[in-house]
Design brief:
188 residues, alpha+beta, Jelly Rolls, 9 helices, Crp/Fnr family transcriptional regulator, cNMP-bd_dom
Length: 188
Amino acid sequence: MQHIREHLESFAPLSDDDWFIFKSKLVFENYPKNSIILKEGTTENYLSFIESGVARLYIPKIDNDLTFGFAFAHSFVSAYDSFLTQSPCTYQIQSITPTKLWRINYDDLQAIYEETAIGNEIGRKNAENLFLIKSKRELALLNKSAKERYLELFSERPELIREIPLKYIASYIGITPQALSRIRRQIS
């Protein structure tokens, strides 16, 4: 749980009282490799902190899933749009590796916003951080070549190459696995 506190405190200082309230509402869940954490069509009711493991966000398709996000240890994962609106999700979340989550449900998070001095600020800053990550990816898809997107991803997140199947990485950067193989041959 200490990693959660450290992550939250990267946004704003957290008093011991506020931390006690927050951690008292967390629930632990363990997901084996390739488990569905959230199924398409269900409503996201949790904001989850990854203690260990890797998760991917994707749109399931018959031929090839469309991967559009990854979440790693010591970060949050959620179908955040579904969580905020409390409406059914149009994509899925899957554990790529064995994944341990600390989860807080929607109602408990709303109570934290009401009961703690710092909850709203941490929530806002975390949401801003998620927006910046999403915006950066969208701009890269529009402005950079597939090779540039791959090299940037590899330099920023080398753990991707070790832990995530290449077909998911190819989908994430918007190319086929065959095109990714060609890029990897060119740069090796």
